[in-house]
Amino acid sequence: MNALAQLGMVSELPSNNQASSVPVSSDDDRKDYFVEKDGEKFAGTHLLVDLWDATNLDDPEKIDRTLCEAAVAAGATILHSHFHHFTPNGGVSGVVVLAESHISIHTWPERNFAAVDIFMCGVCDPHLAIPVMQRLFQAKRLEVDEQRRGRVAI
């Protein structure tokens, strides 16, 4: 982890929502982070969010802070984050890696567009991340597609 920190790849906003002081003693004691909702059991909720006519798409530091704040608002545990700034158009690609999965983004400032991927398992609610991101990006049009990943028979 120190190598990641030296590269600036570790977020300063970790949380410990899923940390436990109780040791796991057997496979039977392990917590199942699959979700049960509406009569279905699945790995997690995956949101594909398209932000159109958006602003602030070219600042990796602001985007990093905002996506980390969005993860915390959704109840997620941040492990680390990494963002890259492209030239000459100024686009940003990056990811916040979560214990519960990830939030990733790819921006096209020249088109005022961003594609965001939010995948979370456990008790997290990825929908709570959207208003936090909207405060920064001010998208005039927001399209959200929701998928339940890893469906299993109950």
From TrEMBL:
Site feature location: Cleavage (non-hydrolytic): 100-101
Gene Ontology cellular component annotations, sorted alphabetically: cytosol
GO molecular function: adenosylmethionine decarboxylase activity
Cross-referenced SUPFAM superfamilies: S-adenosylmethionine decarboxylase
InterPro entries referenced in this protein's UniProt entry, alphabetically: AdoMetDC_C, AdoMetDC_fam_prok, AdoMetDC_N, S-AdoMet_deCO2ase_core, S-AdoMet_deCOase_pro-enz
UniProt remark on cofactor binding: Binds 1 pyruvoyl group covalently per subunit.
Cofactor(s) needed by this chain: pyruvate
Modified residues (Pyruvic acid (Ser)): 101
Function in brief: Catalyzes the decarboxylation of S-adenosylmethionine to S-adenosylmethioninamine (dcAdoMet), the propylamine donor required for the synthesis of the polyamines spermine and spermidine from the diamine putrescine.
Identification of the protein by name: S-adenosylmethionine decarboxylase proenzyme
Native source species: Acetobacter tropicalis
Source taxonomy: Bacteria, Pseudomonadati, Pseudomonadota, Alphaproteobacteria, Acetobacterales
Gene: speH
